[in-house]
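Q: I have three molecules that I believe assemble together. Could you output structure tokens for the complex as a whole instead of separate predictions?
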Amino acid sequence: MPTSELEKYFPVLVMAVIAAVMAASLTILSSVLGKRSKSPQKDTPYECGMAPTGDARDRFSIKFYLVAMIFILLDIEAVFLYPWAVVYRQLKWFAFFEMLLFIALVLVGYFYIWKKGALDWAIPERPRKAGPKTGTNLYREAA
Amino acid sequence: MDFMILSLIKLGLVLFIFMTALAYIQWIERKVIAHVQLRVGPKRVGPHGLLQPLADVIKLITKEGMVPSHVHPVFYYLAPFVAVFFALIPISFIPFGQANVKIPFTDITTNMELTDLNIGLLLILGLSGMGVYGIALAGWASNNKYSLIGGLRSSAQMISYELPMALALVSPLLMLNTVSLRELVNGQEGFYFNVIPRWTIFLMPAPQIFSFIIFMIAGFAETNRVPFDLPEAENELVAGFHVEYASMKFAAFFMAEYANMVTVCSVATLLFLGGWHPIVVPGIGNWIPALVHIGGGAICLYHGLVQPARKWDNITLPVFGVAFIGAGLLFAIPIVQELLAPVFWFTAKLLILLFVFIWVRATLPRFRYDQLMRFAWLFMFPLALVNLLITGLLVAATTN
Amino acid sequence: MDAILFFLFATITVICAINMVLQRHPISSALSLIGVMGSLAVLYLLLGGEFIAMAQLIVYSGAIMVLFLFVIMLLNSGAEPKRSRHKILLFLGAPLLVILLGVIGYFIQGQIPAQEMVKFGSWESGPGKPAFGSPQNVGMSLFTSYLLPFEITSVLILIAILGAIVLARKEID
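A: Yes, here they are, computed for all three components at once.
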């Protein structure tokens, strides 16, 4: 049996060291053991055989950024739920209504995000132009 | 014996079993998917392809450890390191059997775990959150359009599903009131009317079936498995964030994925399926491990001796059959039964959940990205929240 | 043992923090900051703040730094160009840094009562007696004594959500 609370973390620490060694050896081993050969073709980024154009690190949709931001805020809410859950049976209705108020306020923000369409990743459908739909037209619309 | 020495010995044992299991989960996955698709799967290396994992590892290690010149070399190496590092740590504090077990022929008593932390569940959540960095870094460091899009999608997906996951984990805590994994399982002991186990998914007053389902779905997304394998989406992103990776660095991401799968399934087992508690009352339940092994052995013997389907089956299958029956007889010995039956139950539940992961991969198609995000934010999140509030209502109403 | 662990992780924290400032590539800086957050979590743990350590790991290392990384990737900012520095600045700066550290150290020294040593990892728990920094203890004080700050947090989160949407509004519409 562990003698102190901190000693309980000893296996975790040892495991972290072992995991670090294993992860390092996995990533480095084949660079040491494997053969080496260089060619200009190998050095180009893989793009299904096409010659790459432009920089790969292009700017991307703001939605990713927004999702990360909303995630932080709701994650803070989720972290508060854990100490709440472990004392729930002691506080009962008091704890319930406390958290109801808390969640209700956060939910107002959640519905605001929802209504603003920040969670909708689909490209909004454009109103279609009237006209005969032939094969070529469909292709042009898709593009 | 000293706690530290004892835990080092246990760590060595658990690590050996865990690493072997990781290698063989991959073999099982290939076999199961092959049989779902009416193929045979790996069978050339060793009997039934059992040595395939070993062959794969040797092959991958001796492959060229290529570092293309367009990548950022430091982050390129760092990404698989981070992915594997954070995936391996959780096994050091996941309990897998009962406490205070006396090891036969010695006077050592120990717990069937490496350690039990007061905040075990939170640490698992924290570490699974760190897994995002491996993938995001791999995508960015590769300096490849496919990789970057794959990495970003994957990170956004993982953080989106982490929320419902965290919320789904809270509801059972309302009834069990602890975040220590061992105490969580201890709270699920016993049976209703001697039939229905008091696991969290059946536990009164608020059975947690919905949070179990939400947790499992979020688990699929967190480990980037089908139907949430958008970062890898072969048909559009070729292989997503690991396009530019080769050799063992490439395999490191898969190792991390399988280790994460084991962690997710362990948490589901411990939190929702009663951990190491048996599914039927102990009187009969104690004999089930023995019966399962002997039954498996009998099937092997039948297929090996009576109906050998392939060339070497009349030699290999009887060997497996005898080994299984031997293990089954071992489980009939009372001392062993007491020691290992809980571990058997834990492992059995874990393997069934892992099988579900593989089964789903063989069955379901992939989500489209906007569907995936809408599912997380507009369905899973509110559902988890409603489930939480209803659980709170029921628990508060019935607690006196 | 506890003191060794403290100095180990304190050193890691400081090295990561210095590295964060010195690195010219923004992603290197962000990763160093993750290192700082992670080792800070371990330091909280050494002091017995188990729940705080986990909250640090989940919220700071797991959530906030993901946003940092996303923003850096979004802006696609490359490495900062190396600025030419005058030698004089170094000669002037180094003594000033020493003086600053000295002054801070002096004031901290004045604040701490000299007799009481900081105890690392000596927190105790038992059946029915949750440890000092455990979720049970934190929960009890958070939901009874510090109820108002907790509820106000939800207002803060609400305001932050509105702020996030307003910032990104042009792009969504």
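A: One point stands out. Residues 2-123 of chain C form a domain with the Four Helix Bundle (Hemerythrin (Met), subunit A) fold (CATH 1.20.120.1200).
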